[in-house]
Design a protein that fits this description.
The chain is of the alpha/beta class. It is 45% helix and 17% strand. Strand 4, helix 4 and strand 5 form a beta-alpha-beta unit.
Length: 234
């Protein structure tokens, strides 16, 4: 493996998939910097401490970002680029892990909630892709060994929707479609664009659907460098 001067950017950090993926990537020695983004600053500090505990020699940075505030996305990503430049470690891998998970009887779902969900997980995803993909392609051309990748946490809901998760089912289906479009549009450009499909509720006690195993599978998916998705099932 080439130089470990790589930064992983986590959009939607948290005490589950987000912080475990960051910890997995920097603890392997192939990444030396993680940037965690979330709207919850208290949780960001907890996530930073968790990642640092798994990889004491890595640099861990945090930035506040509310993905529903679409106008704040590009300025925050520019700040992330500046942090990566300071660390002399380019952003080579991005994990988009944002989602709002809640149960609602199908006829009681509020239009305002569905609209917010699409802003947070779909419009925001498009904004991040617009900003990041040209940069990752440029990186792949100048440094193919950096293995640029854009990964999106998804689920089984696009093909197996659950009525009481109507909004989540809708947004995940749209996310999958968007990633398929981008993967097709930029095939052969040196950037791995794919989905980490977590097919069920994540719990530490589960054999496969636990945060550590999901993080390991995400790393293996990045390392493999190809394929539309990795499916993780219990």
């Amino acid at each position: 493996m080439s130089s470990p001067n790589r930064t992983i950017l986590i959009l939607g950090s948290g005490p589950g998939i987000g912080n475990h993926v960051a910890a997995e990537f920097v603890s392997r020695g192939t990444f030396n910097h993680a940037i965690l983004l979330s709207r919850n600053t208290a949780r960001l500090e907890e996530d930073k401490a968790f990642v640092q505990s798994k990889a004491p020699n890595a640099k861990v940075s945090t930035l506040k970002l509310d993905l529903a505030d679409l106008d704040s996305i590009v300025p925050t990503l520019e700040k992330a680029e500046a942090l990566a430049k300071e660390a002399d470690s380019p952003i080579t891998t991005i994990l988009f892990n944002a989602a709002r998970v809640y149960l609602t009887p199908i006829l009681e779902a509020k239009l305002s909630d569905i609209e917010l969900d699409f802003r947070t997980t779909n419009l925001a995803l498009y904004a991040v892709l617009q900003f990041s993909i040209p940069r990752l392609i440029t990186l792949s051309q100048s440094s193919p060994s950096s293995k640029p990748a854009f990964l999106v946490t998804n689920s089984h809901l696009p093909w197996d929707p659950y009525p009481d998760f109507l909004s989540l089912s809708l947004t995940k289906a749209s996310q999958r479609n968007m990633v398929q479009n981008f993967a097709g549009a930029f095939k052969g450009k040196g950037v791995h664009i794919g989905l980490v499909s977590v097919e069920g509720v994540v719990e530490p006690s589960k054999k496969n659907l636990n945060p550590k195993n999901i993080a390991e599978k995400a790393y293996e998916f990045w390392e493999g460098g190809e394929g539309l998705d990795v499916r993780i099932q219990e």
